[in-house]
Design goal:
The structure is a single chain. The N and C termini lie far apart (97 Å). With 597 residues, the chain is of the alpha+beta class. The strands form 4 sheets. A 5-stranded antiparallel beta sheet has the order 4-3-7-6-5, sandwiched between helices. The chain has 4 domains: 229 residues, Up-down Bundle (Rhopdopsin 7-helix transmembrane proteins), CATH 1.20.1070; 96 residues, PAS domain (Beta-Lactamase); 72 residues; 156 residues, 2-Layer Sandwich (Heat Shock Protein 90).
Length: 597
């Protein structure tokens, strides 16, 4: 093994190579300190890498300025403080710059990251005891410059693999980040990748024997060049500023969409929230596409963009699932350093707000309707319902006090009977309506025979029809099975027959017919040849307007029953319609489902 001569002190002769690499190292170290002040994890780790490279370069400068082998070996030991940590800091920079911190969360990965530089330093500093890092070394003078010739050992090759692996994996992470970045930011990431490849290529040339002065290692120069290039990329492209790293953190988390449109009305950038408003057919061409192609059905929006009119515009955007109501806020910026002018468009989805507003409006209208109906029902209870009971009470008092004779009482009986029948029907309808308004009111749908139900109702109304000599005909086919709530349909039929009898003249006719409407429903027609209705009354028929109406024999009515009929039919997925002509008669048409589906 080569014996190493010693000298009492270190003497340095700074040739042009040593001076150059020394200045480059100082620059790298200084820029690293400057960059560290910018904060942020990615910037911090890159500044550490620049510091390590500065240590490497400065120590290499002293190595080139020395002519004593033992002193050069001591300098190499210091040199490895930078060499061993450069790949670590580069890797950590790439991890944080690419938002892949999850790769180094485990304790094993942290131990491996810290362990390799420590092991490398120990192997270099103890090399004279095992020669695993350098097998041999010698000093050679070339053009008045002393250069050390190193023969790599086993661990040197192992460290080289580690060095290249970390460099390659870091570049791969940068490539993935560039690939998923928007086009406008890709050159920023590309500049980092290109700069990172430079020392890789230079070191490969060194290992393959392509070296100036036979032994000169240009890798520290290359890493310094990389550091300078990336440093200026930081300031040129604001690599660690709000664009693009914080842009991805802030804009992508925003619920509002953002579009950046240049002076030629070309889309140059957008965030994730803006994607639903862009045409899916042009997805691969969104960036670089004209707004006229992206928003062809929004003339007002395009007009404001073209004329550079700032402000908010409400638009209706058709998507795959639904129509969306959106608000586009146009902000024009004309004094920047990148473009002559450009427009920032903030897109806010108003669909839910409009739906909620419409829902609140509908609920308000429904509440007003129910309040009006409540007032009307209280009015009925206060007048129409109270009146018959007061009359009956007074007559009974008169009978009890012998104020009227039996003959006089019999004369009043028909009128009292009508009042009691009217009051009973009214109470029944109010009860049915009240039940239908309860939230917990259940609808019990089932299959039942419609013809049997109609026959039962005809029999029920036969006595009242006979009093007015009204004939009721029916033509409902046997086994007409429908699917609905039997009680509700019974109430509807009962109300319609009751009204038909009430508004028919003496000797009138009522006809009940039915037939299938295709395969999904049965149509039931309840017709009479009574007095009929004009258009004014038809428009009020199913609403809470004008409750009071009297029959041909002065029978009282409220109109409440028809409103209940409408609600019950709708709750059973059916409908009720009416056709009527004044003086000719009316026909009510019911649509009743025949199956559950």
């Amino acid at each position: 093994m080569l014996k190493v001569s010693t000298a009492p002190y270190m003497a340095f002769n700074f040739n042009y190579l040593a001076l150059t690499i020394f200045l480059v190292g100082l620059l790298s170290f200084g820029l690293g300190i400057l960059l560290a002040k910018k904060g942020g994890k990615a910037a911090k780790w890159f500044s550490y890498m620049m510091g390590s490279n500065g240590v490497w370069a400065i120590c290499y400068a002293f190595e080139l300025a020395n002519n004593q082998l033992d002193q050069i070996l001591k300098i190499i030991n210091l040199e490895y403080l930078g060499i061993a940590t450069v790949p670590l800091f580069w890797f950590l920079f790439c991890i944080h710059f690419s938002d892949k911190e999850n790769l180094i969360k485990s304790n094993w990965s942290k131990a491996l990251l810290i362990g390799m530089p420590v092991i490398t330093l120990l192997m270099v500093w103890t090399n004279p005891w095992h020669y695993l890092h350098y097998k041999d070394y010698s000093l050679e003078k070339i053009d008045n410059i002393y250069l050390i010739s190193l023969q790599p050992g086993f661990y040197y090759h192992f460290f080289t693999i580690y060095f290249y692996s970390f460099l390659a994996f870091g570049c791969f992470l940068l490539y993935l980040k560039m690939k998923r970045a928007d086009k406008i930011f890709r050159r920023q990431n590309l500049s980092v990748i290109i700069a990172a490849i430079i020392p890789w290529l230079v070191n490969m040339a060194y290992l393959s024997g392509l070296r100036p002065y036979k032994y000169l290692d240009l890798t520290p120069f290359a890493f310094s060049l990389t550091s300078v290039l990336i440093f200026f990329s930081i300031y040129r492209f604001k690599l660690f500023n709000i664009v693009p790293i914080a842009r991805e953190k802030v804009l992508e988390l925003m619920s509002d969409g953002f579009l950046v449109i240049n002076q030629n009305l070309i889309l140059v950038d957008f965030n994730k929230a803006a994607r639903p408003y862009l045409p899916e057919a042009l997805e691969d061409k969104w960036v670089g596409a004209s707004v006229f192609d992206l928003f062809p059905n929004q003339p007002l929006f395009l007009q404001h963009l073209k004329a550079q009119i700032p402000g908010k515009i409400e638009l209706i955007c058709e998507t795959k699932a639904e129509f969306k109501y959106i608000e586009a806020d146009l902000i024009f910026l004309n004094e920047n350093k990148i473009y002559t002018d450009f427009c920032l468009v903030q897109i806010q989805n108003l669909t839910e707000h409009i739906k909620e507003a419409n829902q609140i409006k509908a609920q308000s209208e429904e509440l007003k309707r129910l309040n009006d109906l409540k007032d009307s029902i209280f009015s009925i209870i206060a007048h129409d319902l109270r009146g018959p009971f007061v009359n009956l009470s007074e007559v009974l008092k008169m009978v009890a006090n012998d104020d009227i004779s039996i003959a006089e009482f019999k004369a009043l009986a028909p009128s009292l009977s009508k009042d009691i029948i009217y009051t009973t029907d009214l109470l029944e309808n109010i009860l049915h309506w009240s039940r239908s308004q309860l939230k917990g009111f259940g609808i019990k749908k089932e299959y039942f025979n419609l013809r049997n139900l109609i026959l039962d109702e005809i029999n029920y109304h036969s006595p009242s029809a006979a009093l007015k000599k009204i004939k009721i005909y029916h033509d409902v086919f046997p086994n007409a099975i429908v699917y609905a709530d039997l009680i509700m349909i019974q109430i509807v039929i009962r109300n319609l027959l009751n009204n038909a009898i009430k508004f028919c003249e003496e000797g009138g006719e009522i006809q009940i017919n039915s037939h299938f409407n295709g395969t999904d429903a049965v149509l039931v027609y309840v017709s009479d040849n009574g007095r009929g209705m004009d258009k004014t009354h038809l428009n009020k028929l199913f609403k809470q307007q004008n409750f009071t109406s009297r029959g041909t024999n002065n029978e009282k009515g409220t109109g409440l029953g028809l409103m209940i009929c409408k609600e019950f039919m709708e709750q059973n997925n059916g409908s009720i319609k009416v056709k009527s002509e004044l003086g000719i008669g009316s026909t009510f048409i019911l649509t009743i489902p025949v199956s559950e589906y």
